Amino acid sequence: MEQATAIPHVLIFPLPVQGHVTSMLKLAELLSLAGGGGIRVTFLNSDYNHTRLIQFSDAESRFRNYPAFQFKTIDDGLPMDQLTKGQKVSELVGAMGSKTRPVFKDSLVQMDPPVTCVIGDGALGFISEVSLELGIPNIRFRTISTCFFWINFWLPEIIQAGELPIQGEEDMDRMITKVPGTESFLRCRDLPAYCRGRSDEPTLLRIVRATRESSSPPYPLILNTFDELDGPILALVHHRLPKTYAIGPLHEHLRSRLHTTSYSSPSSSLWKEEASCLTWLDSQPLGSVLYVNFGSITMMRRDQAVEFWEGLINSKNRFLWVIRPGSVCFDEEMGCDNMPEELVEGVEKGNLKVLVGWAPQEEVLGHDAVGGFLTHSGWNSTLESIVAGVPMICWPFFADQQVNSRVVSEVLKLGLDMKDVCDRRVVERMVNELMVEKKEEFGRKAAEMARMAKESVKEGGSSYRDLELLIEDIKSQAQEVNGSKSNNSIS
């Protein structure tokens, strides 16, 4: 019994949306794998998402290989099948704070064997609060980009300095000066939607400010990045939060530790993946295809979809467009009379393929035929593109995506930023710039960053070292927790 209680038991709890589940499940597998059976891992998922995960991925069978791993589920307080628009994420966070918190606390109390460390999604502040109430060590995982995390950290200072709120469209290109390390590139336009005075601003702004206010004393933090990608900002984060573990790119890190020859890391998809696009890519010339996918939450108006379609067609480049069912918004006023049939039903002909469904994105980006990525700039997608050495055209939707697109274009020089624009002429021009005019220039930079990403997760690399340090600290925490309980029982 004494030996059993000394084994760390880590509970991992993501915000129940695809991008957060994806990265935190990869962390769960890395801990299960690297712990060599010496770490118990419980992955706490929403009922709805767990059902989809088991239905559309091999997660259940895959994790049977780890006897010390288990799935648990919890009610998230909101019907997840209604979560179709990015702005509803704020409703989900609010619902979980009120309805899921007490259930989560009861689950932690009843967990057997007892949990010695909680790795909670940083978007859900109540996870840290409950963990602290119960005296369980807590590590926050921020699935967002490091730059976006750092900007949110400084948001109160930006407001205090009068640089927010944004006054209007004429104010969008004004520089933000109060975030260390970003002074040369950060504009109002690159801040998230809740800084633009939209209706959901008060709720989200309170969430962000609460995150900053609860940062004292400094808390342990996990980020899905690597030194060579985010070094200058990471150094600043480390100064404020010394226990920061940069262990990304997680999908490449997992693939490296599994020693797999497959380009794709293990799946955690909440959607049915259609592999037909890979067969189509097999018949396309090297580096000739622009991959188009706007992620698991982005919603697009009918007229925007038409602009993208016309711009892509006019560019005369090959493209593969994956359209998530329900991602194009139709309403009575807009109608769908002018909607190309190919975008509604999908098509495969000549130099284009439209897939209405979902695709195995890592495999697509790793395919030799893909030479560019038109993306919503979600952080997982950005990292997957970086690892694959594929330059990007960025059309961000919400959350960290506005910041990510600016970093990709102005800091990393790995692509072009199309934010706040949806015009067929701009689409045509940028596609040709990425795929034809500056193809070699972008390709060289993307290939070099891909090399550094792969090196970071190999033995001796920065991310490899940080993961080893994280594992050591988790084991040390378990000893402290068990030692504390033993002392209490003796007294």
TrEMBL record:
CDD domains: GT1_Gtf-like (cd03784). It is an enzyme of class 2 (transferase). GO terms for molecular function: anthocyanidin 3-O-glucosyltransferase activity; quercetin 3-O-glucosyltransferase activity; quercetin 7-O-glucosyltransferase activity. It holds the Pfam family UDPGT. InterPro entries: UDP_glucos_trans (IPR002213), UDP_glycos_trans_CS (IPR035595). It catalyses: an anthocyanidin + UDP-alpha-D-glucose + H(+) = an anthocyanidin 3-O-beta-D-glucoside + UDP. Keywords: Glycosyltransferase, Transferase. It comes from the Eukaryota. Pathway: Pigment biosynthesis; anthocyanin biosynthesis. Its EC number is 2.4.1.-. Belongs to the UDP-glycosyltransferase family. This is Glycosyltransferase.
